[in-house]
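[Meeting: bench + compute handoff]

Bench side (C.D.) handed over the final construct sequence. Compute side (W.E.) agreed to return the predicted structure before the next meeting so the bench team could plan truncations. Sequence as handed over:
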Amino acid sequence: MKTDSKNIKAIIIIAALGYFVDIYDLILFGVVRKPSLTSLGITGEMQLSVGVQLLNWQMSGMLLGGILWGILGDRKGRISVLFGSIFLYSAANFANGFVTGIPAYAVLRFAAGVGLAGELGAGITLVSEVMPKETRGWGTTIVATVGLAGAVVAALVAKEFEWRTAYLVGGGMGIVLLILRISVYESGMYSSIKNMNVSKGNFFMLFNNSRRFYKFTKCILIGLPTWFVVGVLITFSDKFAEALNVNSAINPAQSIMYTYIGLIAGDLVSGYLSQLMRSRKKVIIIFIIMNLIFISVYLFLNKYGETFFYFICGMLGVANGYWAVFVTNASEQFGTNLRATVTTTTPNFIRGTTVPITLTFQFISSYLGIITAAIIVGVVLISIALTAALKTEETFGKDLDYVEVT
């Protein structure tokens, strides 16, 4: 069952706009962390520890949500996840605009995290299944590139408006998008297996077969550097600037904005290269190596002032711009009855690794300082990601119309 070109375009546009709102809301906490915590009475060194705690609540929600929405995407359909996830994170972010204390802030960041977890996986799965196998990389690249612009808008809105207003804007955009999604159709590939007697969305199938488990693990490990960069180096860029003796005050909101401008460029380049080279694997390896280079520059040579600091943030964004390629790679690794589960859990498991990464970073930094801690954690994560990428299966042009058997 094929989807006509008009519906394919509509699916790509809606998936891209959905990811735009998703990224806006996902990144917004990092952008408004300082003003929101200051407004709630958290100042000084407490901002780092409380900020990490709230970030970890959000990422824990995404970890749980990744599993829940992934299973639902394979059992109930991709469209049901698109509707349910956006409703939850829109409501949670709207409510974030009214918090008066840290406990409520934490609960709502967790709820928002659960909601945010479903957007990208369902969108990429849907786009991958409706587009021709030779060109689907273009569709997923458009989704990721447009979506990442949400982070830039989050930074601009937070710069111009009070932090509570920024949360309300995110919630409002989500509700508008929810109305637009009414016209989106289900994937024909998924519809063809909906009534088949085959296990759909069985999360445990990823663990009861060594080949599937190994493949799933590699999909996750490939993306480890991305949230180390965003969740540690960029979110707490003001603290790194102080430790590096940068002679200007660095604003994390600006760091995030420049990083995501770089990510937009990186996703365009990586998507183009994957089509040009006809390879997901080679592009992922190239960008992981770029990560190593620019993390090293950030931590060792970042002493030339504000302009250079933000430039390196942008280049870290470029190096991490293999997000669309890596999520597409995960989507192409598994059959239709497990595809949404994998495509949704993989990026959210990576986002969820922010919790152990930040806790490890905090522990090491308490003894060795944040620069040494970042070096140790960064080298370990890059090494793991590169090893996983070298051993992963090439999926460019793979036929996705098949199912996984128990």
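W.E. noted at the follow-up: The radius of gyration is 20 Å. C.D. will use this when planning the next construct.
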